[in-house]
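Marked as duplicate of an earlier ticket. Keeping the data here for the record.
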Amino acid sequence: MANQQYKYTKTIRIWLITGLVMLIGQVILGGITRLTGSGLSITRWDIVSGVIPPLNTIQWQEAFDLYKQTPQYHKINAHFTLSDFKFIYFWEYAHRLWVRILGFIFLIPFILFVIRKQIDFYLIKRLGVVIFFTALTASAGWIMVQSGLVDRPWVNAYKLSLHFILAIVSITAMAKAVADVYNYKNSAKKPEAKIIFLLISITFIQMIFAGLMSGMKAGLYYPSWPDMNGYFIPDVLANPANWNLHNLTNYDTFVFAPALVQFVHRLLAYIILIFTIYLYIKYRTRLYQRAKFWLTAAGVLVIIQLTLGILTLLHIRSGIPLVYGVLHQLTGILFFISLVFLFLSLRKGEVISI
């Protein structure tokens, strides 16, 4: 538990909230990069020199020539002009630049606050966890990019999901640090809070499938609702012969894995919606103000989130609609964070159980 005697300044609080917002922004930029097909436009990871983009025609052509060596260019974007390349380069560059800016904004003040003893050892440990998982997320991101530079024209879906879920863990760790400086302290007994933790766990699993949905482009296979191309359970899932490792790994050539991922993603969405609304109806009048706020936020966000997911499916044409897709991702992250804050804000006597 955080040192409740330690007084965190307003500057510390603003700094941590800024870090949380920027982490969320980084994930959203990643979503835009994915949906615009921009993630493989920069084929090298230059930590220092990569800060500076191409500045003249010669440098732009050199960057374009590197992209021309990728499977994505040969199999999908061979028609690209330099102007087309600049568009996808912009989003990947913005995604990488943002994380560098985030590192600068986070690490420099962190070092200064430690030297000046403005943060206690407890918070230092918490922020150490944030730094660790953020670095791990970046490393997984580069491993993910490399998976799309060999044979297939897209990154590996499982590596993309790992990259995404590590980013969610980083956001969760930062949210916990923010909660600490605002004196959130879960003093409820474990039996009282376990139902919220269960919902958080289900939502976390749902976000793993969200990453797989994106990586496999699963939405393109069944762009209908409430059915999946006329079925509640796709017929490809009903054949026992399809349930094998080969079909799970070769999702580019057979519909089984995308069908399974989208089916589970839909099913979990319904479970989470019902679960959240049930908790809101039953407990909205039994909680203190802070916990009640986060429960209400979760209830509103889960409805918006599901609606955006449906709209995303129904507006699929040749690709995932950018605006709906990004908003669907954003509300999903905000919903998850609201559950985390709800769990952390529960006080003793605030019974949350079935």
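See parent ticket for discussion. The mean pLDDT is 89.
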